[in-house]
Amino acid sequence: MPEISDRLKKVSVSASVAMTQKARDLAAQGIDVVVLSTGEPDFPTPQHAIDAAYQAALNGDTRYPPTDGTPELRRAIRDKFKRDNQLDYDVSQILTAGGAKQIIFNAMMATINPGDEVVIPGPSWISYADIVRFAGGIPVPVNCQQAHEFIPQPEDIEAAITDKTKWVLLNFPGNPTGSVATKEELQAIGKVLLKYPDLWIMTDDIYEHLIYDGREFFTLAQAEPRLYDRTLTVNGVSKAYSMTGWRLGFCGGPKPLITAMSNVNTQNSGGVCTLTQAAAVAVLNGPQDLLRERAEIYCQRRDYVLERLNAIPGLHCHTPGGAFYLYINISEFIGRTCASGKKITSDADFVMALIEEQFVVTVQGAAYGMSPYFRISYATSTERLKTGCDRIEAFCQGFLS
Ligand code: PMP
To answer: 101: CA distance to ligand 1 center in Å?
Structure first.
């Protein structure tokens, strides 16, 4: 057989995707599965986005798009950055791609030379490290402690920086912890980054609008304007507007970086679907009330699940300020035996036993680089969350020793 590339061999299949597939397989057998592994909103895409896409199709807007994004969309993104983040980007500093994921991919492909290091505070989204490896770089994790609400400490970031560091990646509200950095915390991290003029910084703000308890969202280039020239501010419509399937991510950043990323874009996609671009213009320029309304519902769900799970002896979870995930510590279950007689030696064992005994699908903390934890997504109906919590409770109470 002809071989696949060495580059690809370094890349793993996302554990959350694998878990979601497991859930689909069980459901196909007629089993009532509670899926708490999927990182996507359960709300519908706003009607005005669908109308705009339909209208674009009727108008014949079905030809190759400008690869960087249509002028209307890039203007809408420019206005969004100004409105929400007080960031001034010229339209030429804005780029779109097939999801924030492809933006990050393009950024790494545009900048990483073999052996370059990328500092990634963790636990972190699964894809960062794989994208870095794919581009030929080396992910350098920085462990964030639960005692610090999983916010990276400036001195820990500094300790991870070497003369090979090309990027530092930041993500608030974060996946998988939901942690949100305050303006002061960002400024403290920024103070360290100012000392290292040869590295880029990426802030992944995809969960920007999923933020609770009256917290205010800040992004790095806003909190520390002196880093504006080296910061790539990444965002998208997936999580805020329930548009995961439309595949649109965007960023604002320094012109030379955007130009390089644009060159990658021309070779790996040729631009985002024209109908998606029309829909994105509609949501970015349209009424924004739905963001607060939906965040309110996520917050109520968070409170419900947090209270239920923290009441289960042995489970411990901090109160996340954003996103739609809980990252739950299970150290008290390690070394014990669950109802089916299986000894739990890792969070992967815990998650697998939870599927097998109670048909609740979650993701093991190991996938995000910190154990022993498991991640649940509460982006699902309260009714399903109640069933999920009942089953997790039964699972934990069923331990034999
Ligand atoms: N960043 C983070 C932290 C995420 O959790 C996700 C989706 N799970 C993405 C980026 C990707 O978003 P998109 O749908 O825009 O590719």
So the answer is: 6
Ligand 1, atom 5: nearest CA belongs to which residue? 175
332 Cα to the center of ligand 1, angstroms: 31
Q: For 128-150, what is each residue's pLDDT tens digit? A: 999 999 999 999 999 999 999 99
By most ligand atoms within 8 Å of CB, the mutation choice from 20, 130, 132, 206 for ligand 1 is 206
Residue 254: both structure tokens together: 């320094």
pLDDT tens for each residue of 17-33: 778 788 889 999 999 99
- Are 339 and 398 within 8 A, CB to CB? yes
Give all domains of the chain, ordered by start, each with its CATH number.
6-44+290-397 (3.90.1150.10), 47-285 (3.40.640.10)
* 176 close to ligand 1 (CB < 6 Angstrom): no
Residues 151 and 185 sit within 8 Å (Cβ to Cβ): yes
pLDDT value at residue 10: 80
CA dist 265 and 315 (Å) reads 44
* CA max distance for the chain: 66
CB of 146 closer than 6 angstroms to any ligand 1 atom: no
The CB density around residue 320, as the number of other CB atoms within 10 Å, is 26
For tokens 């804005």, name the residue: 94
- Write the pLDDT tens digit of every residue in 92-118: 999 999 999 999 999 999 999 999 999
Does any ligand 1 atom lie closer than 6 A to the CB of residue 375? no
